[in-house]
């Protein structure tokens, strides 16, 4: 038993990304997570993504979301499967599901039924649109929520430029954000149960809601000013210069957070008079005068390679960095030092590559103790451990 959640038992009856991501985080933190899947088919992402060069093993998508779990196969469409799951629920702290709203009621596995069986249960429902409202019964996947939440309207090349138009964020950001919110909510509900009420509760989390909330300051810009956020490519909506520039060899991301940093930036670029120009003295002025400011900055940056600029900017406290692909990310000395790319012993003794959990606890470190499980791999083991039943 290790991590900050060693005595927490979690039933993960979710599929695809958001729910499994949440349950994996709880598993990384030491919870005993049991993944419940339909016999024969299991989680859809067992068939999504890439496989090893020899075509074996679990898919990359499944591996990304399902370490530190045990797996059982139960057919909840049959009375025996329902009875077994209810017996496990009676021993659980957390139950996570992502069936369509109301979809588990017909099996007697809804919150009302399971909380009556185990009043201490924290029951988390993750759906596309939530448990109520006109869209509650509708299906949905990440691109739908990126589109409906407004995210795609602020992602992509600006109007009037080559390739203009809305784009998807390059990963399933709505799922991952919902998984983070679900994790936070579960931990809060467990704390309330254990320190205040003695009872669990139902968490109703929608991917659409989570993605809207994650827009944070961009959405608030609109609410406060009435201005509609726009697609800005690799630039900021509120600061300048805060964007990617070309250099002599490759693009460089530069982020200027205040007027002092802008002055330092200009000195490094050999443009010391710009900060005194009233058109560029403040961020608000710079935003209003980007058409005249940015070409001067771009011309200066084209005179040297990106590495030279990064070294010089680092010396004066101005943030900059390369636009890396994942090969470059893995080779970065800071990333290597933080051990963000690791290996976990796989099912057959092979080395399974993984991306580490970024949380570093001083006293209860994350423990990578289990590779992603095969379908139903631990059914007998879990029944013995949790229920004491003869396999």
TrEMBL record:
Transmembrane segments: none annotated. Gene3D superfamilies: Crotonobetainyl-coa:carnitine coa-transferase, domain 1 (3.40.50.10540), formyl-coa transferase, domain 3 (3.30.1540.10). It comes from the Bacteria. Keywords: Transferase. One of its GO terms (molecular function) is CoA-transferase activity. InterPro entries: CoA-transferase_III_domain, CoA-Trfase_fam_III, CoA-Trfase_III_dom3_sf, CoA-Trfase_III_dom_1_sf. This is Crotonobetainyl-CoA:carnitine CoA-transferase CaiB. It comes from Falsiroseomonas stagni DSM 19981.
């Amino acid at each position: 038993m290790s991590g900050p959640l060693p005595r927490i038992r979690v039933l993960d009856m979710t599929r695809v990304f958001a729910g499994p991501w949440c349950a994996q985080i709880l598993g990384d933190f030491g919870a005993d997570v049991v993944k419940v899947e339909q016999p024969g088919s299991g989680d859809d992402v067992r068939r999504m993504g890439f496989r090893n060069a020899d075509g074996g093993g679990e898919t990359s998508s499944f591996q990304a979301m399902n370490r530190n779990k045990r797996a059982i196969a139960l057919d909840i469409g049959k009375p025996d499967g329902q009875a077994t799951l209810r017996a496990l629920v009676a021993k659980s702290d957390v139950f996570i599901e992502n069936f369509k709203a109301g979809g588990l009621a017909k099996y007697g596995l809804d919150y009302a039924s399971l909380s009556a069986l185990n009043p201490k249960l924290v029951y988390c429902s993750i759906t596309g649109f939530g448990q109520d409202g006109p869209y509650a019964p509708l299906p949905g996947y990440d691109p739908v929520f990126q589109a409906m939440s407004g995210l795609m309207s602020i992602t992509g090349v600006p109007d009037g430029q080559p390739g203009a138009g809305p784009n998807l964020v390059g990963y399933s950001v709505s799922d991952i954000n919902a998984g983070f919110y679900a994790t936070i909510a579960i931990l809060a509900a467990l704390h309330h149960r254990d320190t205040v009420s003695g009872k669990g509760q139902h968490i109703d989390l929608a991917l659409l809601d989570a993605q809207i909330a994650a827009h944070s300051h961009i959405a608030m810009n609109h609410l406060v000013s009435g201005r509609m956020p726009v697609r800005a490519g690799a630039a900021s909506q509120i600061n300048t210069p805060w964007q990617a520039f070309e250099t002599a060899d490759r693009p460089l991301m530069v982020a200027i957070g205040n007027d002092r940093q802008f002055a330092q930036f200009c000195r490094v670029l050999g443009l010391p008079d710009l900060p005194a120009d009233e058109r560029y003295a403040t961020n608000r002025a710079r935003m209003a005068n980007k058409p005249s400011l940015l070409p001067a900055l771009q011309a200066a940056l084209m005179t040297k390679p990106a590495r030279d600029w990064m070294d010089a900017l680092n010396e004066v406290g101005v943030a900059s960095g390369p636009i890396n692909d994942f090969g470059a990310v893995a080779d970065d000395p800071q990333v290597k030092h933080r051990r963000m790319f690791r290996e976990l012993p796989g099912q057959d003794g092979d080395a399974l590559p993984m991306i580490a959990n970024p949380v570093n606890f001083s006293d209860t470190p994350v423990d990578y103790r289990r590779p992603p499980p095969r379908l139903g791999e631990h059914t007998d083991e879990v029944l013995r451990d949790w229920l004491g039943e003869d396999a």
